[in-house]
Amino acid sequence: MAEVELKHVWKIYESGFEAVKDFNLHIKDKEFVVFVGPSGCGKSTTLRMVAGLEAISGGELYIDGQLMNHVLPKNRDISMVFQNYALYPHMTVFDNIAFPLKMRKMPMSEIKKRVEEAAAILEISDLLKRKPKALSGGQRQRVAIGRSIVREPKVFLMDEPLSNLDAKLRNQMRTELIKLRRKLNTTFIYVTHDQTEAMTLGDRIVIMNRGVIQQVGTPKELWGKPSNMFVAGFIGMPQMNFIDGELMESENGYRLFTAGAELELTETHQTLLKGRQVKGGKVKIGIRPEHLHLSENGIPASADVSELNGGTLNLHANVGGADVTAVIQLTDDDIHAPQVGTPIHLSPEPQRIHVFDPETEENLLYGSYVNE
Ligand SMILES: Nc1ncnc2c1ncn2[C@@H]1O[C@H](COP(=O)(O)OP(=O)(O)OP(=O)(O)O)[C@@H](O)[C@H]1O
Ligand SMILES: [Mg+2]
Q1: Nearest-atom index, ligand 1, CA of 47
Q2: pLDDT digits (tens, 9 = 90+) for 48-59
Q3: Angle at 349 between CA 347 and CA 355, to 5 degrees
Q4: Which of 203, 223, 291, 357 could pair covalently with 349 via S-S, beta carbons 3.0-4.6 A apart?
């Protein structure tokens, strides 16, 4: 059992800087939660408060229902892996992994058993006699993870553990982490600024900006129902397109217009907008590149550069001065990218259109995230 609960948690550094503001989250037993957001948004600060490495300025932290605010890090039964994992260069892999257990004066037979188990899980059993300098980056990272596994903590905290690895190794280690998580079956809190990592690893994702939670949800929820333009723009690659539009209320419901075209709204749109009593006016229309298609008619645009991306083509275009991207699926080897400057038309899939308030940036279909 390891539930982690943060209630109205604040971090105000001595300088007066508010790094984390009113953070509320209930992490369930065995859940894998990812904190994601841009640099400086307060991810590490929050994680360090859970670990006890940073004092909590306001609010409460509970682990398994017990108040932890003033419990020492070593008594929280938590283990943390950092981005800059430091291995002891003069020690073998075995001794590096065994180190926290030796510190606890655990009997050698038990140490050996735990190190060998961890090494087997991480597939580094044949490296136990080596020194860190004779390992690759990914192997070193696995040793660092091994050192945190052997302690058998209630909660694993990981702060950008893969960010020092190259892209290929990072993908590989991501898969390893998914397997590791299945084997260990404990609670994980994982920090990253990489949305792909967040989307592939997290049961739930906490997306932060400037110390404030923007939304908490499953990857599917964040992708399909982003609560505001920040979340909508952060999740998804290439980024969601935002174009200026005008929402109008008529007798037959809402109508949506943008640069030279009317966009079709679905019954669901009508119900959601009406349900929230949304007023007509200027809006930002959000369309993901994969939901925007070349068509006979639709939004008039002018083709810009195209990038071939494996089986797809990222077509950049200009819509009334704004840059938009459409992902075009290529069905055969025949690649017809429109020439730069060619007039084209783009149509969004109606059921995938998002509508945002241009001032508050909230999603007009679903409303803001309720932080409680
Ligand atoms: N000791 C400190 N005193 C004052 N401000 C601090 C201190 N430590 C961090 N901060 C500030 O708090 C904010 C949050 O920092 P934090 O390290 O939590 O960000 P982060 O989300 O982990 O970013 P990154 O992705 O770059 O690691 C930043 O603006 C940072 O400058
Ligand atoms: Mg950080």
Answers
A1: 18
A2: 999 999 999 999
A3: 95
A4: 291
